[in-house]
Amino acid sequence: MTKNANKLGGLSDLYFSPSFLEQEKDSKFLEWYLIEGFERLNELERQLRTYCNYKCSVIRFRFSGSQKSKNFLKNDHITKWKSKLLSKASRLASVLKRIGAEEISLAKKMQILIEKVKAHPNGLEKGLLNEICNLSHETWKSLHILSEFEIHHNYQLLHLAIKIAIVSCDAERIFFSLFSDFYNELKQNYVQLDKEISGLLNLNGEERFEKIKKNTRVKISE
Predict the structure, then answer these.
(1) Could you state, in order of their start, the residue ranges of all structural domains in the chain?
(2) Is the dihedral of CA 180, 182, 183, 185 positive or negative?
(3) Rounded distance, CA 158 to CA 72, Å?
(4) How far are the Cα atoms of 57, 68, 148, 204 from residue 73, in angstroms, in the given order?
(5) Burial category of 99 from C-beta neighbours within 10 Å (exposed 0-12, middle 13-18, buried 19 and up)
(6) Cα 63 to Cα 71: distance, rounded to the nearest angstrom
(7) Per-residue pLDDT tens over the stretch 125-174
(8) CB 91: neighbour CB atoms within 10 A?
(9) Chain segment 36-86, per-residue pLDDT in tens
(10) How many CB atoms sit inside 10 A of residue 103's CB?
(11) Distance of CA 212 to CAs 68, 199, 204, Å?
(12) Which of 52, 55, 174, 198 could form a Cys-Cys staple with 110, CB 3.0–4.6 A?
């Protein structure tokens, strides 16, 4: 039963809900469902930890400024996962664009696609939906691993990761409707982080401008 469940990938939530368990008599199915639920809870915990890591990075950036650390730039692991994040996020954006999903209508477009898969399980839409689900999962994986590093040393990567997480929350909210409230709240928290780091970047820009003006005045007076 577990092997068959794995073939569904991230689409299992589209076909099963707690209401089905009331009539389900298959003990193997119940066992599989409990395993799937446990794995989903682990994923939610990991995504919450990812957010907390990025929140800490924004706080550290607030007090450390936007200078890049030499050790950060030379870290091969960061370079590797940065490349993976950009690759997966770019492919995900490309697929979402292919189905006509712009940021404002992503949820609606995804819901239409899901309904088509439910109506025609063997249609071409299922492969497309699986691709989106897999890319979303890989994107989250890269986001989490990067969050474990001292990413505050590179404000551009930190800011980009937060923006990618915002879009990824929308996709996950549609895939796993049972946890839509969780992903909606998670998205709002990432939106707030985006505002915070944007404000810090503007502040740092103003401070640099004031330093340039001050240095210029000193040179002129001399």
Answers:
(1) 2-221
(2) positive
(3) 12
(4) 16, 7, 15, 21
(5) middle
(6) 18
(7) 888 888 888 898 899 999 999 999 988 888 889 999 999 999 889 888 87
(8) 16
(9) 566 777 888 999 999 999 999 999 998 875 555 555 556 788 889 999 999
(10) 11
(11) 20, 20, 12
(12) 174
Among candidate residues 75, 44, 60, 52, the one with its CA nearest the CA of residue 147: 52
pTM of the full predicted structure?
Answer: 0.72
* Continuous segment of H or E residues that includes residue 19: helix 18-21
Q: How much is the pLDDT for 201?
A: 85
Neighbours of 111 (CB within 10 A): 12
Q: How many Å separate Cα 9 from the centre of its chain? A: 18
Burial track 20-41 (b if 16+ CB lie within 10 A, e otherwise) = eeeeeeeeeeeebbeebeeebe
Whole-number pLDDT of residue 152? 87
Q: How far apart are CA 93 and CA 103, in angstroms?
A: 10
